[in-house]
Structures are given as structure tokens and as C-alpha cells.
Amino acid sequence: MKKIEMLNLAREYNDYGEEIDFAIKNCLQHQLWVNGPEVNQLEREVSQYLGVNHCLGVSSGTDALVLSLRALAIKLKGKEYFGREDEIITSAFTFSATGEAILRSGATPVFVDIDPHTFNLDSSKVLDYLENGNSGKVVGIVPVHLYGQSCEIERLMKYSRQFGLFIVEDTAQAFGGKFKEIKLGSFGNTGAFSFYPTKNLGCYGNGGMISTNDDEIAELIRMLREHGGKNKYDVSHMGYNSRLDTLQAAVLIAKLKFIDLLNEKRRKIADIYYSELSKVEYLTLPKIVNRDATHVFHQYTIMCKERDNLQLFLSQNGIASTIYYPVPLHQMKLFAPYIKNPDDLKNSELASKQVLSIPIVPTLNEDEILYTVSILKKFKN
Ligand SMILES: *Cc1c(COP(=O)(O)O)cnc(C)c1O
Predict the structure, then answer these.
(1) Which atom, in ligand 1's list, is nearest to the CA of 144?
(2) How many Å lie between the centroid of ligand 1 and the Cα of residue 276?
């Protein structure tokens, strides 16, 4: 039986390993494991790639969110943390780290429902919340570009101007994604990236990055990631030890050269899935509702009413699949105390019951993609 995996990093290493070996060997020569030259080089290269003034390496995507929010609290409120009376809007259907970061910044998360076609924050529901007497409490929005597809970032930017809110883009799943040819992560006050190994641009451990055009925010994040001071021995803020390792930066410099090619391969696989599966009536394929959004297909996520049976059927045929995410945030114990609108989150609940992400890594070959297609077609036939 064939075995189709969600991820095969060994294969990717086979294809691109020479560059990575070279980058790692360089580090072995200079031995500067913390704040080595690769960190700054990566920051410069990613700044250029995204078209922003600053990029700052941090130790994870979660920390990229937390440090972004902490820096905004310091800049906007003059305090180390937001207060629980400060509300930050985000999606109910995302990785728990998005909501966790909001709590860790001191603020209260407000979970808003998703658009059922894109799985991204429904901007009209964001506007409803703001116009229903809540705009005084809300300080910002953390939209997520889920599965690699841009959220309605232009509309959210408009609301941010209208209501005086900040925006932190959770770009953990969308490195290289665009909206109207502008890179995701460059719209908001900051963009938060993750280089966790499974992400579409991944390193060999934990890693993250923050992009921003705001000099003051960049300076604050530079302090927060190293204990909270310009000088380690004289700190101003309650900081962290949250640097991006030199070695991870080196791996990322090597991989950055290929990211556009790899994202393009993901889109090609998505095209095959679309042309082969769009007529299979028990499957709902991901929709690109807005043509201005360039999807990088970090995940290819389908919906099926009999999702659990489909997943079992796939695994019986050697095909891996993953449920991102089986529980929406508002149904988790951590977030339960903050939920005011449990009845308004139906699309997130439905998604959690029906979504299934199927293999779309660029290292899949055509045989494997067509085999996956053939099994998906057989599920109910
Ligand atoms: C992966 C991910 C994060 C967290 O990134 P880490 O590097 O694992 O800390 C945050 N938000 C979303 C949407 C993610 O997918």
C-alpha cells in the first residue's frame, strides 16, 4: 500500500540539503550560537522580501504574537500589559496560541465567527461587534491568515483606522501569501510569523519573526526579546529570553531562497485537487472567494459531513490527514470565562466538526497526488 504523508522533511532535505549543509557548516566555523550574524542577515532578507522596515527574529510564532501585543501595550497605554478591560478581537477558529497570546498580553480575547468559505474572520461580524457599543473597549484585532489564505485584511485595516485599533496579523501559516500583490504581515502594526518545522517556511526547531514598519515598536520588541532592556544589565521592561537561534536563522536563510517555488508547488497541487475533485458532491473544497488574495496553501482543507469516517477511510488506504482544528477556542476551558456570545460562533463549530486537511506538501509527486484523488473519489462510491 502507498503511504502518503502530511509532511516529509527528509525528502525536502534531499532536494535542498546542499544549501542547508553549507549554512550549518558556516555556523560550526564561527560558533556564534546566540545573536550570530545569520540572525541579522535573515532579518534583512525577510524585511526586503516582505517590503517592511523591520523584521525581528524571536523564538517562536507564539512569542511573535505575545511580544507584538506587549510592545503595543507599552506604546499605546504606557503599561507593561493591557488590562482585562481591554478587548482584542480574534477568530474563534485558529490555533490556541492566538488566543493564548491575547490573554498573556493582559487583554481579554473576543472571539468572532468565521466566514464558512474561507475559514477566516468574518469582517462584517467584526464590524457588527464594533458598532454595537463595544468600540470603546476594543483596542485591537488579531486576524489570522488561516491555512495560508489572506483574511479580509483590507476591510479590517479600514475598521482599524475608523475605530482607532491596532492590527497584529497572525501570519504563522502564510509566509509569502499576498493580498493585491502586497505581502501578508506587512499590513498591520505587526505581522507575527512562525517557523515551526511544519509551517510552509519552517526551521529545524522553534523559531518566529515579527515584521513591522513602526520604529518604536521595533525598538520595544528588540528590548522585550532580550530581557526588556537596551542593556541586559539595566532593564526597563518585563522582558523575555526569546531570541531566534543563529542555527535556525541559518537554516531559514537557505530555505528562503526556495519559498516562492515551494509555495507555487503547493498551488499546483491545489489546482490538481480542484480539477479532479470539484464535482465530488460529498466534499467541499477550499474556495478562493477573493481573487485579490494569493493563497499559499499551508494546508489544503476540505469539508465533509462524514469527516471522521472519511479520515478513517483515508488512513485505511495509507493516506495521512489532520484535523485543524477539532475544538474552536471558545469551547476550550482556558477561554470559557471570556465568552459572551456562544450562540454567534456557529460557523466555527461547524468547521471544527467537518474540516480535514489533506496532504499538500511540495515534496509530493504526481503519482501520490493522483492516488490521493482516486481514494477520495472512492469514499462513497
Ligand atoms: C503555529 C501557529 C502559531 C504558533 O506558532 P509557534 O511557532 O508554534 O509558537 C500561532 N498561530 C497560528 C495560526 C499557528 O498556526
Answers:
(1) 13
(2) 31
pTM of the complete model:
0.98
- What are the grid coordinates assigned to 125, written together? 461580524
Determine the pLDDT at residue 287.
83
For residue 232, the model assigns a pLDDT of 82
CB-count exposure of residue 133 (10 Å: 0-12, 13-18, 19+): exposed
pLDDT at position 1: 83
> For the chain, where do the domains classified as CATH 3.40.640.10 start and end?
9-256
Q: Going by CATH, does the domain composed of 9-256 fall within 3.40.640.10?
A: yes
SS3 for 161? helix
Domain with CATH 3.90.1150.10 in the chain: 259-378
What does DSSP say about strands 166-170 and 190-194: parallel, antiparallel, or unpaired?
parallel
What residues in the chain have per-residue pLDDT under 50? none
Residue 6: burial class (beta carbons within 10 Å; 0-12, 13-18, 19+)? middle
- The CATH class, in words, for 259-378 is alpha beta
**What pLDDT is stored for residue 310 in this prediction?**
98
Q: Is the CB of residue 280 less than 8 Å from the CB of residue 377? A: yes
Q: Which atom of ligand 1 is nearest to the CA of 324?
A: 15
List the residue whose alpha carbon is closest to atom 7 of ligand 1: 61
pLDDT reported for residue 292: 87
pLDDT given for residue 280 in this prediction? 96
Half-sphere exposure of 11 (CA within 13 A, CB side): 10
